[in-house]
Amino acid sequence: MAVEGEGISSSAPISVEMMRGGDNVKCEWKELESLSKDELIIELVKVRWEMRNLMSVLGRLSETGSEGFLCAPGSKPSEEWLGKIESKARKDAGSDEDFYSCTLQEYGVDEKTADECYDRLMEQRDEKESI
User: What is the mean pLDDT of residues 32-38?
Assistant: First the structure.
C-alpha cells in the first residue's frame, strides 16, 4: 500500500520515524534486507493480521457506529513459531519494560496464547532474579 508524500512504498513494518518522515528515516528496503527469513515471515503474518483486524474493525464501525470495538482474534502458532515471534517482538519492543502480552497480540497471536507465553517469560525472569 503506497502512501504518497510520506515515503512509504510497501506494507512492510513502519517505524514511528518512517511515519513522521524527516532526515533520520531509514530506507525500508535496507531494513527488510537485514531481516532473516523467519523474521520476514513473522512480519508478513503480523501485517496480514493487522490488515484483517483493520478490515474487521472498519466493517463493525460501518455497521454499529463507534460501539463494540474489539480486535479481531489472533491465532495460536506452534510452539516453535511462538518462540520465534516472542524473540522478534521482544527485540522490536526495545526493552523488557516495553514488552507485554499485548505485544504478542500485535503479531497476530491469540490472547490466551499471548498471556500464557508472557506469564511463562515473567516466571523465568523471576526465577533468574531470585538466584
Answer: 90
